[in-house]
Amino acid sequence: MKFKKEVQELFKKAGWYEGRNVQETFDKIPRFNEYPEFLKEFLYEYGDLKVETDTEFAKAFLDFTVIPSGFYEIEESLDNPRYYGDIMTFPLADYHLDSAALECDLEGKVYMVGDFPTLMSEDFKTGIEKVIMEDYSDTKEWHPDVKEWREEPY
Q1: Taking the complete model, does pTM exceed 0.85, yes or no?
Q2: CATH of the domain at 22
Q3: What are the residue ranges of helices labelled H in 47-146?
Q4: 92, HSE (Cβ side, Cα atoms, 13 Å)
């Protein structure tokens, strides 16, 4: 999977290189085999990296080392669908600036989950690019009172 040039450069800066494969690291993780194929393929190539995101005011990192390190309990995520939309999501990374989890569902939708769950994108590749480039345009917030995603704030 390739990303737009600016994002690919930030992955390179974090240690990514053409042909990178850390499959062995992830395949040892209990229940990782339950992740969707597209997500496994992404993590085999880009997982286990800490990517500095494109912020103007502070150093921020999207930490893809959290799955192999055991920071997130995969079993908990797989056994308990998220309260927003009652969907199964898969932990993917930790976003240090907001102490938020980056998650993905079976369809490839990307979520930033902290104090207020945000649907970053309905497309996996776009969602990853938006988080790394700090692009919060066209995102949706979860509104628990009506149980739906909306573009407007609370």
Answers
A1: yes
A2: 3.40.1580
A3: 66-69, 74-79, 124-132
A4: 30
The per-residue pLDDT for range 40-59, each reduced to its tens digit, is 999 999 999 999 987 777 78
Task: Note the pLDDT of residue 57.
Answer: 77
Number of Cβ within a 10 Å radius of residue 88: 16
User: Helix-strand-coil percent breakdown of the chain, rounded to 5?
Assistant: 30, 25, 45
Residue range of the domain that includes 107: 5-150
pLDDT digits (tens, 9 = 90+) for 110-148: 999 988 889 999 999 999 999 999 998 999 998 888 888
Spatial CB neighbours of 46, under 8 Å, sequence gap ≥ 6: 1, 11, 16, 20, 64
Q: What amino acid occupies position 42?
A: F
Domain tally for the chain? 1
